[in-house]
Amino acid sequence: MANRFSLELAQRPRRLRRTASLRAMVEETVLRPSDFIAPLFVVEGKAPPDEIKSMPGVFRLNIADLVKECRALHKLGVPAVALFPKLDPSLKDDIGTQALNEDTLVLRAVRAVKKAVPDLTVITDVALDPYTSHGHDGVLTTARDDVENDRTVEILGRMAVLQARAGVDMVAPSDMMDGRVGAIRRALDAEGFTGTGILAYSAKFNSAYYGPFRDAVGSAQAAGTRLLSKATYQMNPANRREAITEVMLDDAEGADILMVKPAGLYLDIIRDVREATRKPVAAYQISGEYAQIQAAARLGWLDLARCRNESLIAIKRAGADLILTYFAKDMATLLGR
Predict the structure, then answer these.
(1) Which residues are registered as beta bridge partners of 125?
(2) What Cα–Cα distance (Å) separates residue 131 from each residue in 49, 91, 202?
(3) Contact assessment for residue 242 and residue 236, using Cβ atoms and an 8 Å cutoff
(4) What count of other Cβ atoms lies within 10 Å of the Cβ of residue 244?
(5) Catalytic site residues?
(6) What is the mean pLDDT of residues 155-177?
(7) What percentage of the chain has pLDDT greater than the value 90?
(8) Is the pLDDT of residue 227 over 70?
(9) Could you tell me the maximum CA-CA distance found in the chain, to the nearest angstrom?
């Protein structure tokens, strides 16, 4: 006998989930290739792509292969790349001298990419950790127990000018020194680079999830450990209100885009930042976030594609306009079909 029991409900939200077409019609958050910025690692020489063991599917690329990858990303509709150099350890020293070399690796990479793919937005990191023998983002104090804020900021300003001169579209200070966004903006403007933008790592937390990235750029090797603490300059993961203080300072100092890093564990911060500013908000799905999804998928514990997609939807849903992610190429390929 048929069950005639029926609830008298005026509202049945499931009606809009009944078919794929209905679900698509009311979908609130949509990912596009143009949402993504692809982080890329560049190395010297002519060696073939070198896969980073802790980041499956991510490679260190020589400049020629980097150019090929940038062409492919641009063709897929990814609008921007963020470049990170891995220097030979012999070039590193206590004060990151190579960061101010006009012919340093990342600047040669910028020139090559902009020549080959002029319409691709190129972003460069402004921090000293790829260049220092101790792996920190700035110059250490005499006691070597902290980073000298103001001395570091002066170097970062000069570094940003060199990057602008090489042709970058945006510089991205990731060091978390006080006052660096304003100092970089003044340095750029003084040299005539008023059109060079600043994507500021405004709320960058002292996360335990940076290990694979430090392997990728060699800062872990330089420091002798991937567990290097940057607690005196990167933010305490316990602090939410402080993130807004940092973000609004960067906003006032002239940042064009404000970023939260990491992304997945800090969705509340992304939402807070989105509500605090009218400027574009970026979020960085960092190496550890990428690595844990890849590792769980390889063990058969998670579905790679579904978890990847869900993680990125969550970041955009929280309020990010732009997402730096190592899944950028895969997502652009998927979404472009």
Answers:
(1) 172
(2) 21, 7, 21
(3) yes
(4) 19
(5) 204, 261
(6) 98
(7) 92
(8) no
(9) 86
Residue 328 is inside which H or E element, if any? helix 328-335
- Number of neighbours of residue 31 by Cβ within 10 angstroms: 17
Cβ atoms of 171 and 143 within 8 Å: the answer is no
Plot region of 10 (φ>0 → left; ψ -120 to 50 → alpha; else → beta): alpha
The CA distance from 82 to 184, in Å, is: 18
> The tokens of 116 are what?
């080959």
Domains annotated on the chain, with CATH: 29-335 (3.20.20.70)
Residues 328-336, mean pLDDT to the nearest whole number? 96
Pairing mode of beta strands 50-51, 59-61: antiparallel
Q: Which residues pair with 258 in a beta bridge?
A: 200, 281
Residue 80 to residue 323: CA distance in whole angstroms: 10
Residues 317-332: what's their mean pLDDT?
98
How large is the average pLDDT for residues 150-158? 98
pLDDT, tens digit, 9 for 90 and up, residues 98-121: 999 999 999 999 999 999 999 999
**CA distances (Å), origin 139, targets 17, 72, 199, 207, 217:** 56, 37, 22, 21, 18
Residue whose C-alpha is closest to residue 63's, from 126, 132, 122, 128: 122
Note the pLDDT tens digit of each residue in 250-309: 999 999 999 999 999 999 999 999 999 999 999 999 999 999 999 999 999 999 999 999
Q: What is the DSSP letter of 47?
A: P
Tell me which H or E stretch contains 153: helix 149-166
**Contacts with 226 (C-beta within 8 Å, 6 or more apart), sequence order:** 210, 211, 214, 215, 220
- Assessment of whether the complete model's pTM goes beyond 0.85: yes
